[in-house]
Design a protein that fits this description.
Strand order of the largest sheet: 1-2-5-6-9-12-13-14
Number of strands: 14
Distance between the termini: 51 Å
Mean pLDDT: 88
Largest sheet: 8 strands, antiparallel
Number of helices: 9
Low-confidence stretches: 1-17, 240-248
Order of helices and strands: HEEHHHHHEEHEEEEEEEEHHEE
Structural class: alpha+beta
Strand content: 25-35%
């Protein structure tokens, strides 16, 4: 009798597992794409709720939304910042302190001057770079009583190096409040993989092969399996400006004021969440492979570097 009961229970459990439905939702957000896949026994869809999250992030952090909180802060309007803004501010500050200022959310004036935002680039001279660089210092801006306080009113904030990773985590956290523990959230390439597929297999993630130009076709350099980790790739081969035959990277060193020049083509970081992976990938691209390897040592994260050495493209894994 007990054996028969066990067989019935096993059959019911297997039947329940078979009912897990694959739900997908994709679209465009934050100037890029998003793709969400999860498994749910009830086959529930949360498109409206997810869209609401995207909208809330956009209203808080978008530099292209005239009415966003960050645009109001940058215009020195009296505005109370919300939790999303404060979370990104704290992630940015943590990254700045960890990297000794290589990551700096006050980089905005330099990014704009070099033409990587919504404004036209300026005719940059050493004197202009030195002048604008005086506005870049994360230690001179803080949040007091839910308001941003700047040492210089011309300072601005830019959370682009963490916002998409943060959005990925935010959506993942939302899904978990709904009891969903197996999902893959991808917002513009910032990915969070939680749990597994119904067959027990881990999520498969492709790391992009560096492209020759920003409009070149996409190809996969390597595929990896991922579970309960965030993964983010930062690269200089698609985001750049070209002027007088010279290509300038979108990664700007806050300490020099100039786009970085080094042999690292892309850095992929695997961490416990996408927010921190996003920050670390940016740091890697600014400091370069050698310094990044030292910084990430004993941090409990993995990194995959694609770089050029003597004209040859090479790869290297950094593991704990």
């Amino acid at each position: 009798m007990k054996r028969a009961l066990l067989i019935i229970i096993a059959f019911l459990l297997a039947s329940c597992a078979d009912k897990s439905q694959k739900i997908t939702y994709s679209g465009v957000t934050q100037g890029s794409y998003f793709s969400i896949t999860y498994y749910d026994d009830g086959g529930r869809t949360f498109e409206a709720e997810i869209d609401s999250i995207f909208k809330e992030v956009d209203n808080s952090l978008s530099l292209w939304n005239e009415n966003s909180i960050i645009r109001k802060v940058n215009r020195n309007e009296d505005v109370v910042v919300n939790q999303i803004f404060k979370d990104n501010f704290e992630w940015a500050r943590r990254a700045s302190e960890f990297s000794n200022g290589a990551f700096d959310a006050t980089i905005g004036p330099l990014v704009e001057a070099w033409g990587f935002h919504y404004k036209e680039e300026l005719e940059m001279t050493p004197e202009m770079v030195d002048s604008i660089r005086q506005l870049v210092d994360y230690q001179k801006i803080q949040i007091i009583d839910d308001r941003v306080v700047k040492a210089n009113p011309n300072m601005t904030l830019d959370f682009n190096a963490v916002a998409q990773g943060y959005t990925t985590d935010l959506i993942g956290n939302f899904l978990e409040t709904k009891g969903i523990t197996n999902y893959l959230v991808d917002v513009g390439g910032e990915i969070m993989a939680r749990g597994t597929k119904p067959n027990g297999k881990q999520w498969t993630i492709g790391i992009e092969k560096p492209a020759e130009n920003y409009d070149s076709g996409r190809a996969v350099q390597i595929k990896i399996n991922l579970k309960d980790k965030g993964i983010v790739t930062s690269g200089n081969y698609r985001k750049y400006i070209e002027k007088d035959g010279v290509r300038y990277s979108h990664s700007i060193d806050p300490k020099t004021g100039y786009p970085v020049e080094q042999n690292l083509l892309s850095a992929t970081v695997i961490a416990d969440n996408s927010s921190w992976a996003d920050c670390l990938a940016t740091i890697c691209m600014i400091v370069g492979k050698e310094k990044a390897s030292i910084l990430l040592e004993n941090q409990g994260v993995e990194a995959y570097f694609i770089y050029v050495e003597n004209g040859v493209i090479k790869t290297e894994w950094l593991r704990p």
